[in-house]
Structures are given as structure tokens and as C-alpha cells.
Hints:
Layout: E1 13-21, E2 32-41, E3 45-53, H1 62-68, H2 85-92, E4 96-99, H3 103-109, E5 120-122, H4 123-130, H5 139-145, H6 149-155, H7 164-181, H8 198-204
Parallel strand pairs: 1-4, 4-5
Antiparallel strand pairs: 1-2, 2-3
Amino acid sequence: MKPDAFTPLADCTFAAIDFESAGTAPGQTDHPIQVGIAKWSLTGGWQETWVSYIACQADITWSAQKVHGITLKDLKSAPSFASLWPELKSRLEGCVCVGHNIGTELKFLSHFPGHDFGPWIDTLQLCREAFPNAPKHALGNLCQWLSLEKNIETVVPNKHWHDALYDAAASIALLEELVRRFELQHGQVGLLLEPDTRAYHQSRRK
Length: 206
């Protein structure tokens, strides 16, 4: 059954997804080149993880490659994005979907019209509400500030920042920390869907 705002958090499986991309250049559309999914639940803890490169005919921009280190050589035998649809569907369907600044994830998943994934939790917006005065709200900065890196590395060893699976696991680690710190385990999904970020924005105007 598809979860909704009234579904207890304890009854949910959370699936965090992250994409790395080829980057944008003049006259060029951005393309996904790696996708990672990490799953977690309150009752079962961390569950399966999955990562795949994605074939891309476009060049990877220098600026994007500098961030994630992925080259066209890495994509040589990668499957097409379209062929990954059954895998994505099986891993995201029926889950509460999670991402950090979810615009990119929603954009790339829109390649598959008609999917019904969600509801969606954005850990960027949640952390802006929960920690409005944190020095920075980028995924890596928050996980370092909250001392979550060891937790992430236990789940995805030998990975690093800007690997799609590592970043997906980092989003789950943030969610897990928020649920624990603010004692949300007996709440419903709706608690996490519309963060109040007014304090964050007010602090940035000072």
C-alpha cells in the first residue's frame, strides 16, 4: 500500500535516492550517469543498497567530473537509463522517498512519466527547520557537523562523497538522526512533509 501523510513512521520503509550527472554545458541537456538507493526503516534498520552507472552519450563536463570523479570510461558497459526502470520501480515503489534537495531526483525520474513514487521527504528542508543556525546545510557539511560519517561508512564502506550510493545513505543517516533526536518515532509521515524553514531564512537575512 502506498504510504501517505497519515501513515505511521514505524510502518514505513524509507528509500533514499541520489543521482550524479554529466553536468550542464551551453546547448547541452544534463544526463544522469550514476544512481544510488539506500533503504531504511525504524523497525528493521538499514536494508539493501544498490548503485549503478548509467550510459550517457553526452560528454561529462569538467566541473561535474571534478566533483564526482566519474569519467566516460566508467560508463563504458553501463546500462541505459530506460533499462533501469524495472529496478528503480521495484526499489522505490511503496516506499517513502528521501533525498537531499530533491529537485535533481524529481527531474531525472520525470523521464518515466506516470510513476507514482512518494511521498517525498527533503532532508535539506527538514534540516533547515531543525537546525536553522547550522553553519552550512549542504549534505556533507551537515553529516560532518552531526558526526554521522562513521554511521554512513559502516553501511557503504569504500565509498565517498559524491558517489550516488554514499550520498543516498547520507540522506538516510540524516533522517535517522532527525527521528532519533526529536523523538518522532511514534509520529506520522506528515510531520516530515512540509518543513517550516522561516527561522532558517530569517537567520540568513541578519
